[in-house]
Each structure stands twice: as structure tokens, then as C-alpha cells.
């Protein structure tokens, strides 16, 4: 029987950070940092880190954005959120609110956040248009949303190499180190099924966002989408 995202992430929560570091050779941390730096000119005070998981994105945001006063970490899986609290690097400056919640029905009023980050989360949302509309709703006019996602390279040679790694070695690592091959088979499969680049931006525009752009790292293995709500 197939697991729901919450069941899957509950199973791997304990090994999630270690697997990320190993699978990406530590690059996932760098990609989150580069993403957060895009928010610096906007000096957000209140941030939603949606699908926050174990809090790595919230940690980088809190570390690198001195303007932040409040960070809401929202995730469907309490077992993932349980690893987040000790990661707040500035508890006296930025308060972290941890909330179990669903991206499809966010428990916040309209225009509540200055910025939103979603790291490797949108891929898992069952109804992406609905979740994007919710993100748009809770973001204030003039606010920015960043979506960091896995991607597939453009270059045919690099794509073949990467796909071999992603489809064979990553599930094997998952089996050996997280005792969960299925969870790490889901990762390449959900990446292949995700609407990348302009296809994803199209969905974002349908939800109301404008001037959506994206940038890529490692030849398209990692993609950062930057979305704006009209002022
Ligand atoms: C791959 S993890 C990403 C965690 C973290 N953002 C990061 O950068 O490492 C994906 C997270 O999305 C969460 N998730 C999946 N579906 C969700 C939903 N509908 N609403 C909120 N969170 C969800 C999972 O529980 C999981 O913690």
C-alpha cells in the first residue's frame, strides 16, 4: 500500500537531515542559503516556512535575515517538526512558531506574511494549484515567495549521469542509511513527475503570482522559483 506524505516523512524524520547531507554532498545547505539571500533586499519581518520539515530553511533564514522577528514553521508531519526547535540560531530575536498544518488550508488570515519559503515541499502537495492559491492568499501585497525544488538537468549527458545516481544510488543509500528504500525511490519519481520551470511558473501565475522567475544550480538539479504578489 502507498504511504501518504505524512506517513512517509514520519518514517524518515530521524534520518532526514543526515540523508540530505549525504545525497547532496552538503549542497542542499548551500542552496537554502543562496535562496534566503534573495530575501535580503525585502527585509521581511514575518516569514512562513511552509513544509518546514526539520527546520533547515527556517534556520538559514533566521541566521541570514536580521530583519526577521517571527517565523512560522508549518508542516503536515509532527515527527519532522519535532527536530526543528533546537535549530533556531537567534531565539531572542526571531520567535519560531511551530504549527502542524496543511498547505491546502493554511490557518492564517489573508496578507499575513511578508515572505514565504517552501523547500522541497511543493512536489509533495496533492493539489498544487490549491496550495499555491493558499500561499498567495496569506502573502501580503508586495510580498515574495520562494520555492526551492529538485529538478532535472537540461544537458542530455549530465541528465543521464544524474538520473542514474538519483534513480539507483539514492534509493540504495536510503535503504542502507534510513532503512527506507521506498521513501528514497519516491524522491526521483516525484521529481520526474513535477512540472518544472515554465510549466511550474504557469501554475503560479494561475494562482495569482506575477513576475515569476527561476534560477538553476548544478545544471538544473536544483531550481529556485521566485514569485511576487502584486503590490
Ligand atoms: C522533503 S521535506 C522538506 C523539508 C524542509 N522544507 C527542507 O527544506 O528540508 C517535505 C516536507 O513537506 C511536508 N508536507 C508534505 N505535504 C504537506 C502538506 N500538504 N502541507 C504541509 N506540509 C507538507 C512533509 O511533511 C515534509 O516535512
Structure characterization notes:
It is a single chain. The protein is of the alpha/beta class and about 230 residues long. It is built from nine helices and seven strands, in the order H-H-H-E-H-E-H-E-E-H-E-H-H-H-E-E. A seven-stranded mixed sheet has the order 3-2-1-4-5-7-6, sandwiched between helices. Strand 4, helix 6 (about 130-140) and strand 5 form a beta-alpha-beta unit. Helix 3 crosses helix 4 and helix 7 (about 155-175) packs antiparallel against helix 8. The mean pLDDT is about 95. S-adenosylmethionine binds near residues 51, 76 and 124.
Task: Set out the fold topology.
Blueprint: H1 5-12, H2 16-24, H3 27-37, E1 46-50, H4 56-64, E2 70-75, H5 78-81, E3 95-100, E4 113-119, H6 128-138, E5 139-150, H7 156-177, H8 181-193, H9 197-206, E6 210-217, E7 222-228
Parallel strand pairs: 1-2, 1-4, 2-3, 4-5
Antiparallel strand pairs: 5-7, 6-7
The span between the termini is 46 Å
Number of domains: 1
Give me the oligomer status. Answer: single chain
The helix/strand class is: alpha/beta
Task: Name the bound molecules.
Answer: S-adenosylmethionine
The overall average pLDDT, rounded, is 96
Radius of gyration: 17 Å
Instruction: Please summarize the sheet with the most strands.
Output: 7 strands, mixed
